[in-house]
């Protein structure tokens, strides 16, 4: 039995920050040797909100290069650009047509972003979770690494799988099975030597049909399961410990980007929000910023929560902030060095994306063909 398959991706909207790295990509790197992995740059998702077309292509290459710089290994993983595989858009449309509108209107992220965008909210934002479902289902993914905020989208993808598989059995398999019944029944009829009577033919056909009904036919889509990392799944803002670190936050001070210079990291940590209490502790609901900064230190230093709790129990912020700053700079330097190396050889990066696209298309196009057969479409001539 082969390895289970994993699918995930990041939008090319601005730089990767520590939330993306610690909450997602580092987890991909740690588990990649256990799975067959497809990691895409989800540029189709990037235009569901206002975006800058002048930087989209460059940002796409940046994210792909950062995948490699962060440790994605091509021995275990394929990297590709979502829009380079047209099956994503086509399957999204097909799934849109069988997904109830109220399922999409109930999505928490849609409600939150729609409030922010007002009259500018697009149909693409509403159907964003369907595109995410198409991304996953095209590759028959067994596992999907998701943060807590994406769990609802994966649950929707699972609902779409169940709805589609129930409404549309695998027509490809059904058609083949029906043809096999006819051929086998005809063969039995011919060999019976009684070709003036159809009795043997119909009896054989009936027996074979009953035999087929006993066998469980594989559905079109596989049901994906979440792969959630408990520690570091939600890295919070440097300016508000109750809010997730986000690319969309207008303040650059709210996040540390993976490609930030040492000077920028010093400035951001120096100015991050803290409290007047001496002694640093985890899990105090009254001190969300303290918990967040200790969590960042724990993850970046590669230490256990218990070790950090003991180390920092009597510290003040004046002692802790330089410690966190040095740890962050040292943790990000190897990634930044590798990123510069990858970006210096654009031909290599393009070859990685081309190979990834070819591997992705081979699977995606087969899934799309099965979906269209189940829906009753004709085969292109």
UniProtKB/TrEMBL annotation:
The keyword ATP-binding applies. InterPro entries: aa-tRNA-synth_I_CS, aa-tRNA-synth_Ic, Rossmann-like_a/b/a_fold, Trp-tRNA-ligase, Trp-tRNA-ligase_bac-type, Trp-tRNA_synthetase. ATP binds at residues 11-13, 19-20, 147-149, 235, 244-248. GO terms for cellular component: cytoplasm. It is an enzyme of class 6 (ligase). One of its GO terms (molecular function) is ATP binding. A motif ('KMSKS' region) lies at residues 244-248. It catalyses: tRNA(Trp) + L-tryptophan + ATP = L-tryptophyl-tRNA(Trp) + AMP + diphosphate + H(+). HAMAP family: Trp_tRNA_synth_B (MF_00140_B). Homodimer. This is Tryptophan--tRNA ligase. The lineage of its organism: Bacteria, Bacillati, Cyanobacteriota, Cyanophyceae, Nostocales.
């Amino acid at each position: 039995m082969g390895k289970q398959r994993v699918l995930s991706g990041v939008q090319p909207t601005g730089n990767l920050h520590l939330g993306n790295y610690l909450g997602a990509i580092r987890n991909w790197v740690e588990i990649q040797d256990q799975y067959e992995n497809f990691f895409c740059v989800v540029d189709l998702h990037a235009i569901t909100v206002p975006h800058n077309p002048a930087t989209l292509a460059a940002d796409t290459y940046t994210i792909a290069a950062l995948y490699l710089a962060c440790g994605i290994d091509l021995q275990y993983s394929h990297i590709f650009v979502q829009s380079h595989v047209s099956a994503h858009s086509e399957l999204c449309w097909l799934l849109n047509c069988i997904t109830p509108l109220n399922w999409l209107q109930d999505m928490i992220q849609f409600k939150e972003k729609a409030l922010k965008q007002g009259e500018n909210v697009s149909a693409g934002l509403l159907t964003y979770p369907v595109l995410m479902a198409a991304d996953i289902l095209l590759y028959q993914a067994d596992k999907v690494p998701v943060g807590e905020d994406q769990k609802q989208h994966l649950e929707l993808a699972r609902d779409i799988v169940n709805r589609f598989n129930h409404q549309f059995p695998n027509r490809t398999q059904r058609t083949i099975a029906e043809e096999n019944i006819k051929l086998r029944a005809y063969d039995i009829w011919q060999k019976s030597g009684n070709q003036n009577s159809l009795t043997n033919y119909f009896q054989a056909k009936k027996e074979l049909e009953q035999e087929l009904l006993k066998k469980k036919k594989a559905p079109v889509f596989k049901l994906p399961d979440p792969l959630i990392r408990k520690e570091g799944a939600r890295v919070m803002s440097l300016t508000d410990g109750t809010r997730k670190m986000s690319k969309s936050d207008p303040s650059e001070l709210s996040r540390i980007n993976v490609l930030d210079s040492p000077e920028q990291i010093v400035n951001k940590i120096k100015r991050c929000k803290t409290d007047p209490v001496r002694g640093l502790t985890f899990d105090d609901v009254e001190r969300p910023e303290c918990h967040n900064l200790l969590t960042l230190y724990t993850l970046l230093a590669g230490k256990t929560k218990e070790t950090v709790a003991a180390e920092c129990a009597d510290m003040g912020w004046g002692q802790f902030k330089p410690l966190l700053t040095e740890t962050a700079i040292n943790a990000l330097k190897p990634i930044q060095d590798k990123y510069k190396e990858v970006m210096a050889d654009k031909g290599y990066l393009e070859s990685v994306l081309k190979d990834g696209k070819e591997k992705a298309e081979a699977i995606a196009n087969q899934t799309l063909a099965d979906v269209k057969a189940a829906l009753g479409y004709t085969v292109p001539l």
